# Entry
Amino acid sequence: MNRMETANQTHQKGYNCCQSVLSAFTDRFDIPEEAALRVGAGFGSGAGTGELCGALTGGIMALDLLAAGDVTGDPAAAKRRAAARAKELQQRFSERFGALRCRELLKNEKEEPSEAVRALGITSHCGVMIASAVELVEEMLKEEGI
# Structure
């Protein structure tokens, strides 16, 4: 099973979008799945406000855990790298779906899933957002050789 499927199944169990994306990467970092589920618990539905999509929030957290590098040696440089990755992920997501805010995504329901997401048969609105966020994070990690 790939990470997109894992994240979708997590969401189907009742976890929010952030939890589903973040927990799909726990095999790659030193945080147990339960901890990832706890950390992401408050970020669903745009942190309960309809703002930044929880799937994106989970993706940014995964990127930070996997690609931030040493944050103790030069915190300012690490922060700049993390912000650049976050912006890049948001840009790619926005290009695909036309929005970043949960409220807008739910209203627009402009779903443009990739071929990989369609091949998995994921059709629910949030399922598409979750699988796409996982896919985009994986693309970015691959591009960085991580």
Residues 75-97 form the longest helix (23 residues). The chain has one domain: 3-143. The radius of gyration is 14 Å. The CA atoms of residues 68 and 81 lie 7 Å apart.
